[in-house]
Amino acid sequence: MTNPAPPLAGLHVVEVSSFIASPLAGLTLSQLGADVTRVDPIGGAADVHRWPVTADGKSIYWTGLNKGKRSVTADLRSDDGQRMVQRMVADSGPGGGILLTNQAGRSWMSHETLSALRPDVITVEILGRTDGTPGVDYTVNAGLGFPQITGPTSHADPVNHALPAWDVACGLYAALAISSAVRRREQSGVGAQITLPLEDTALSIASALGYLTEPQVNGHGRSGTGNDVYGTYGTDFATADGGRFMIVALTPRHFRDLLELTGVGDAVAAVEKALGADFGREDDRFTHRTVLNGLIAPWFAARSTADVAAALEKSSVLSQRYRTFDEVVADGDLSTNPMFSALDQPGIGTFLAAGLPAAFDGEHYTTGPARALGADTPRK
Amino acid sequence: MTNPAPPLAGLHVVEVSSFIASPLAGLTLSQLGADVTRVDPIGGAADVHRWPVTADGKSIYWTGLNKGKRSVTADLRSDDGQRMVQRMVADSGPGGGILLTNQAGRSWMSHETLSALRPDVITVEILGRTDGTPGVDYTVNAGLGFPQITGPTSHADPVNHALPAWDVACGLYAALAISSAVRRREQSGVGAQITLPLEDTALSIASALGYLTEPQVNGHGRSGTGNDVYGTYGTDFATADGGRFMIVALTPRHFRDLLELTGVGDAVAAVEKALGADFGREDDRFTHRTVLNGLIAPWFAARSTADVAAALEKSSVLSQRYRTFDEVVADGDLSTNPMFSALDQPGIGTFLAAGLPAAFDGEHYTTGPARALGADTPRK
């Protein structure tokens, strides 16, 4: 049996966007089989040259987030350009009528304007702050509390995340909102006006995970724990030759295996008794983690990275050597992973690029390369 | 006109899950209108008492991620318990036949077993590592490279993220996979066997954002930049009374306004000329950021947090004072945000909880509280 079509085949999405969240949403919809056209001003949006770049200045960033999309450019300040985009959204058949943008407040592509041309239109506007004012991942994150609990406990100042996690989550929420709204439209014929602030993405996740409930219910928020995992037993250990491993013992079995491996079962049992603790409970393992860390660390410190890796391989405890991006590539993780395939990206080169992480019936959907800016602009 | 039904109304999802990614997927589907039943072993899964907890030990974490779901418990090692779950998935009407789980490898709820009972079943299995072995957010992250570029540049050791960003992304991909697969099933009648490794989630995002392309194309990955934003001008500054602000100047206009605000336009112009730089380009602003930081910092250091906040309020530059979770709550952000509403969660208390960050036609979908463990278990 041949695999069925990708789940979002037949959809046509017009994306007027820039930066991360909105282009990632379009990329994800494209991976799921939608036909996505990114529209940019002539010469490109503010992100067209964004770093990282190749040695000759071509944007790895731009091509990475626009894979598999058509590229149309237009003078978005002119009536002609605006009318063209409106028609692209409105006249795109039963699977069309979908606008994705992070450029809110433009009346010519507002939900009101577009729904007058096509009543069942689905629009998604990604905003910055909840109140509609501009905000980006790093400002939203600074305002929310995570930088205050990130980083070494000896470091008093806030530490930003490196991954723009809120942009990523926001882009995935946007793709989900479109996919869900399409399902409803196909059932009932109604469109949707969807607004999605980056700040609300962050607040919603922080609420679901309890970070914003603790101050309300317990009277105080969480403190930083450095590289120790909050609420269970997990931390990092250095080896004799400068390697470092992240270790997580989520279950009593993981923890017993870690003690057996490191040979400190008797010492830990003595401490457990002396403290009146029960290390079968993850909260007790967390509460007394500094003592446990101290008992376990010497085993790692006395061994080479290779010996530690070999020993952990045979244990149930969850573990991972810290690696750099260079090492991930050099270790061959990409070439052995079926999600990755060779992509020939004009201007950048040929490299291994990832498809959708969710495999459908064993298949990782991939897209082609990014098109050159404006390559699909209709000729007059 | 009354608003139409939520976009995933009519769906029935059975969730056999624990920890973060899978429960977050179920919560998100529930927010979008699906009827979600979480199934746990009798007494609860490994996450039933997980921190954060209230003063009397009730899990804020568990209730936060299971809001709006039914709760069924069963002896999942018994034939009866397994058969009950199979029937819940198979006999759930046209919107049913959906299993979401992070507990792969159980043949009694495998796609093969369930599709024999219901050919159009949609199953999503969230895995740890790509090869199917266990992995959690903190081990996946350690292996990928982000901790090596997080944290103060003066700190050589890797820094874990505080937010389990890969769990969050994985949960949202899972919800999107289900929503998309449902759309296809309603179009064509086919189900889907979906597998989604947490590690592939992280690798796919790292690939799309260029982190894994740089080593392949440029021969080396990215280095850490501390709290400076990579590739543009953004950093943090301390005020006279110990406050700290994140500042991002994405566009030439933002940067000009920042120079005007801080009164260093002439000095920056002199440096620009001396260095042969063009600070109208974000790559030049990034390359010479240490010099720019040094010129701009004294303005912040000489002023109180309140004065800095008032001045930034009038500027176009993107800015945000770093806050703790306690301050976010104390500042009233939740009570003025329409995404939040009062939730009376038995065992926890009444507090403001977030709904879905994407508002549909102005409405933030919310769910009720989490049910008590096993409250919806069918009586024999």
- Helix and strand composition category of chain A: alpha/beta
- Unreliable parts of chain A: none
Sequence of strands across the biggest β-sheet of chain A = 3-2-1-4-5-6
Q: Radius of gyration of chain A in whole Å, from Cα? A: 25 Å
Q: Give the class-level CATH name of the largest domain in chain A.
A: Alpha Beta
The helix fraction of chain A, in percent, is 25-40%
Q: Main sheet of chain A?
A: 6 strands, parallel
The number of distinct structural domains of chain A comes to 2
Question: What is the CATH architecture assignment of the largest domain in chain A?
Answer: 3-Layer(aba) Sandwich
| Mean pLDDT level of chain A | 97
CATH superfamily of the largest domain in chain A: Crotonobetainyl-coa:carnitine coa-transferase, domain 1
In N-to-C order, the SSE pattern of chain A is EHEHEHEHEHHEHHEEHHHHHEHEEE
What portion of the residues of chain A fall into strands of 2 or more residues?
Answer: 15-25%
Largest interface between protein chains, with number of residues from each side = A-B, 152 and 152 residues
**Could you please say which CATH topology of the largest domain in chain A applies here?**
Rossmann fold
First-last Cα distance of chain A:
44 Å
Number of helices of chain A: 14
Number of strands of chain A: 12
**Overall spatial form of chain A:** elongated
Quaternary organisation of the protein chains: homodimer
Organism (chains A, B): Gordonia aquimaris
InterPro entries (chains A, B): CoA-transferase_III, CoA-Trfase_fam_III, CoA-Trfase_III_dom3_sf, CoA-Trfase_III_dom_1_sf
Keywords (chains A, B): Transferase
Pfam families (chains A, B): CoA_transf_3 (PF02515)
